[in-house]
Design brief:
NAD(P)-bd_dom_sf, Epimerase_deHydtase, alpha/beta, isomerase, UDP-galactose 4-epimerase, domain 1, seven-stranded parallel beta sheet, Rossmann fold, two-stranded parallel sheet, about 350 residues, binds UDP-4-deoxy-4-formamido-beta-L-arabinopyranose
Length: about 350
C-alpha cells in the first residue's frame, strides 16, 4: 500500500481524511504535535478502522524530527499538510505564533520533501484567501483579497510559497491546493469529530455544546447584514465529504493526472446558508430547541461567502453528497457521544 504522510492527522479534518485514505487502500502515517488534538482520536481511528494508524508525536516544524519519521517509515508517496493553527480570532491576538507555525511548518515540510524526493503535496487551504469577495459565489479565479486576519494571510502566503517552490528549476513538486469553506459534522460512527479545546470559536460546536447544556446560549453575531435574514452566509460542508475530496486529490497526484504543477480547487457545497438557517436546521435535525439571542457583529466576519464548486465537479469529479440537515445530525450525535464518554 502507498504510504501517505498526514501532518495534523490527529486533528478534526485530518482524522477524517485518515479514515477515508485507509478505506481507499492507502496507508496513512500521522504526524501531529497534539497541540490542538487529543490522543483519544487515535483510539477512535482504531475503532473505525480495526487497526492502529502509525502516529508520530512531533513538531511538524522540526526538520530533524520529520527526517527521522521518514527514515523510520520508508518510502512515502505523498503528503497531506493539515498541521496549522486555524483560529481566526486567536491569530489577531498572536500573529507571530501563527506566522511562525503556519509558514515554518510548511517551509520545513517542503524542504524535507525535496531532500527525500517526495513530489506530491495536498495542501489544506481556505476560503479566507478570498477576503470579502466582490461577487458570489467565489470561483478559483476570484481574485484573492487581503485576508481579514493573520490566519487568512498565512494561508495566502502558504499558497504563494507552494507556487514559487513548484515553479523553481528541478523543483520536483506537484501540489493541489484545496480551499475549504466551513467544515462541520462528525464521522457517522461518532468515534471521531470536532474537538474544540476550550470555548468553541466555530458556530456548529458552539451550537451542539449549547444544546447539550454545556453553554448557556448561542450568541448570533449580528443580524443586520445585507443577507436574506440579516445573518452571515457560509458554505457548510460535511467533514466526511471534505475528507473524500482529499483522497480524490491524492489519487490525482499519484496517477500524475494533474494538468499543472499547482492546481487549486474550492471544496464546498456550492450554496450558502445563513446562521439562523443553520440554527433552525439543527433544531429540526436534533429535535432540540436551541437557546440563542442576537448579539453584536464579530470583528473580522465576512458578511457572505460560498463556493462555486463547478471546477471540482468538472475536473475532479467531486461533489458533496450530504445535506446540511444530515451533517448537523452527525454533529449532534458526536456531541452526545462525548457526553456519554465523560459520564
Ligand atoms: C460561522 C458563522 C459567525 C460562532 C471558519 C474558520 C476558518 C475557515 C473558514 C478553515 C459566522 C457565526 C459563529 C458563534 C455566530 N476554515 N457565529 N456565533 O468565521 O466562517 O471561519 O471557516 O480554514 O478557519 O474559522 O466560521 O464557525 O467561526 O462562523 O454567530 O458563537 O457563524 O459570525 O458568520 P468562519 P465560524
Amino acid at each position: 500500500m502507498k504510504k501517505i504522510l498526514v501532518t495534523g492527522g490527529a486533528g478534526y479534518i485530518g482524522s477524517h481524511a485518515v479514515v477515508e485514505l485507509a478505506q481507499a487502500g492507502y496507508e496513512p502515517i500521522i504526524v501531529d504535535d497534539f497541540s490542538n488534538s487529543k490522543q483519544s482520536v487515535l483510539a477512535g481511528l482504531r475503532d473505525i478502522l480495526g487497526h492502529d494508524v502509525p502516529c508520530h508525536d512531533i513538531d511538524c516544524g522540526d526538520a530533524d524530527a520529520l527526517r527521522g519519521v521518514l527514515k523510520q517509515e520508508g518510502t512515502v508517496a505523498g503528503v497531506i499538510h493539515f498541521a496549522a493553527f486555524k483560529a481566526v480570532g486567536e491569530s489577531v491576538q498572536k500573529p507571530l505564533a501563527y506566522f511562525h507555525n503556519n509558514l515554518g511548518s510548511l517551509i520545513t515540510l517542503l524542504t524535507v520533501m525535496k531532500e527525500q524526493g517526495i513530489e506530491n503535496l495536498v495542501f489544506s487551504s481556505s476560503c479566507t484567501v478570498y477576503g470579502v469577495p466582490d461577487q458570489l459565489p467565489v470561483t478559483e479565479a476570484t481574485p484573492t483579497k487581503p485576508a481579514s486576519s493573520p490566519y487568512g494571510r498565512t494561508k495566502q502566503m502558504c499558497e504563494d510559497i507552494i507556487h514559487d517552490t513548484a515553479a523553481a528549476p528541478e523543483a520536483g513538486l506537484r501540489a493541489i491546493l484545496l480551499r475549504y469553506f466551513n467544515p462541520i459534522g462528525a464521522h457517522p460512527s461518532a468515534k471521531i469529530g470536532e474537538l474544540p479545546l476550550g470555548v468553541p470559536n466555530n458556530l456548529v460546536p458552539f451550537i451542539t455544546q449549547t444544546a447539550a447544556g454545556l453553554r448557556e446560549k448561542l450568541t448570533v453575531f449580528g443580524d443586520d447584514y445585507d443577507t436574506p435574514d440579516g445573518t452571515n452566509v457560509r458554505d457548510y460542508i460535511y467533514v466526511e465529504d471534505l475528507a473524500k475530496a482529499h483522497v480524490v486529490a491524492v489519487r490525482r497526484l499519484l496517477e500524475k493526472k494533474a494538468s499543472e504543477a499547482v492546481e487549486t480547487f474550492n471544496v464546498g457545497t456550492g450554496h450558502g446558508n445563513t446562521v439562523l438557517e443553520v440554527v433552525k436546521t439543527f433544531e429540526a435535525a436534533s429535535g432540540q430547541k436551541l437557546n440563542y439571542s442576537i448579539g453584536p457583529r464579530r470583528a473580522g466576519d465576512v458578511p457572505a461567502i460560498y463556493a462555486d464548486a463547478t471546477k471540482a465537479a468538472e475536473v475532479l469529479g467531486f461533489k458533496t453528497e450530504t445535506s446540511l440537515h444530515d451533517a448537523l445530525a452527525s454533529a449532534w450525535k458526536w456531541q452526545q457521544a462525548l457526553g456519554e464518554a465523560k459520564a
